[in-house]
User: Which sequence fits this backbone?
């Protein structure tokens, strides 16, 4: 594995002391792989059946269909900057956003764009054409998990925020190192519902029950007006908002989360993903393209949960059933992950 001496070169500038302390604590926890507790900070989800998807919202969530899953354990919180820092320090891993793209994979690309970079939200000064996402998304050189807004940003005060700018292969690498896996879409959605059946949100059918903010989502008119009613513009520390019925935090809002399923435009009935399916693992790599960008033939995985950028006027995807396509070659400032472990069958 290639070394990366720059990983913590600017630690004093980038990381608050609490982060370095947590890194050292986590490092000691992982010093003996045999003693590693796979279920530390995890919640056991008893298997069962549920109605996956929705017929009441976006078309890619339909049709609602019966699914069952086996029991598994899932992280109580999304993986944080502090936790990811331990992984990087121990393995010298270099993330997708920190590496220049392979020119062989992008033969028609302008070479000036084949540099380490990632996708960052930049709030416009006023109302813009909502049909053009380039009005708020920028491909920023030097943006990565340690510098989430670009080269001049850092992680000070964000030890317990979810790690972002994580590509699918990065999430898989972390999960393998931790002795875990990434969830299927069905496992993720079953856990996110928290035991509720057919509720719109992870906590019930009201977005703000009793006027209480239940998740870190956009307040105001997206993308130019963020009222920060819940106190954050961007990610928030994990565990700050109420948990769902299973004791899981941040399943909704804060950051989107990777799943292992290949994306399809609908919940399609097929031998591997159909009504009444058990432990479905859906989609096919070929054809898993983002329908919003039909000209780009890069495979996509399903991401779930919505983020701090989801708003009532643009992206009402802060719900368990919501799903979107995410290209496997791309990392962003609002996408992270959490891990699971599946129980061995006796």
Assistant:
């Amino acid at each position: 594995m290639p070394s990366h001496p720059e990983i913590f070169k600017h630690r004093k500038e980038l990381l608050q002391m609490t982060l370095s302390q947590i890194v050292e604590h986590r490092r000691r926890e992982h010093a003996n792989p045999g003693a590693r507790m796979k279920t530390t900070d995890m919640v056991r989800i008893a298997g069962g059946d549920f109605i996956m998807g929705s017929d009441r919202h976006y078309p890619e969530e339909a049709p609602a269909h019966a699914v069952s899953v086996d029991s598994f354990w899932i992280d109580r919180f999304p993986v944080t900057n502090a936790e990811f820092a331990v992984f990087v320090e121990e393995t010298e891993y270099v993330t997708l956003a920190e590496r220049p793209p392979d020119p062989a994979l992008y033969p028609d690309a302008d070479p000036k764009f084949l540099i380490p970079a990632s996708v960052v939200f930049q709030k416009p000064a006023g109302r813009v054409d909502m049909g053009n996402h380039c009005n708020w998304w920028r491909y920023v050189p030097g943006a990565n998990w340690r510098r989430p807004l670009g080269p001049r940003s850092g992680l000070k005060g964000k030890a317990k925020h979810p790690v972002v700018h994580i590509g699918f292969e990065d999430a898989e690498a972390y999960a393998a190192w931790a002795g875990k896996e990434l969830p299927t879409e069905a496992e993720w959605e079953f856990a996110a519902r928290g035991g509720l059946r057919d509720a719109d949100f992870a906590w019930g059918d009201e977005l703000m029950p009793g006027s209480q903010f239940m998740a870190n989502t956009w307040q105001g008119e997206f993308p130019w007006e963020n009222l920060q009613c819940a106190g954050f513009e961007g990610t928030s520390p994990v565990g700050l908002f109420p948990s769902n019925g299973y004791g899981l935090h941040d399943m909704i809002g804060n950051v989107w989360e990777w799943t292992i399923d290949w994306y399809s435009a609908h919940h399609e009935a097929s031998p591997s993903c159909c009504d009444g399916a058990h432990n479905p693992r859906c989609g096919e790599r070929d054809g898993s393209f983002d329908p919003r960008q039909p000209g780009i033939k890069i495979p996509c995985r399903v991401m779930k949960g919505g983020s701090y950028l989801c708003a009532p006027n643009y992206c009402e995807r802060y719900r368990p059933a919501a799903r979107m396509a995410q290209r496997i070659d791309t990392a962003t400032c609002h996408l992270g992950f959490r891990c699971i472990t599946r129980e061995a069958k006796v």
The longest strand covers residues 256-262. Confidence is low (pLDDT under 50) at residues 1-17, 32-37. The CA atoms of residues 160 and 239 lie 9 Å apart. The helical segments are 11-14, 17-29, 81-91, 168-177, 185-192.
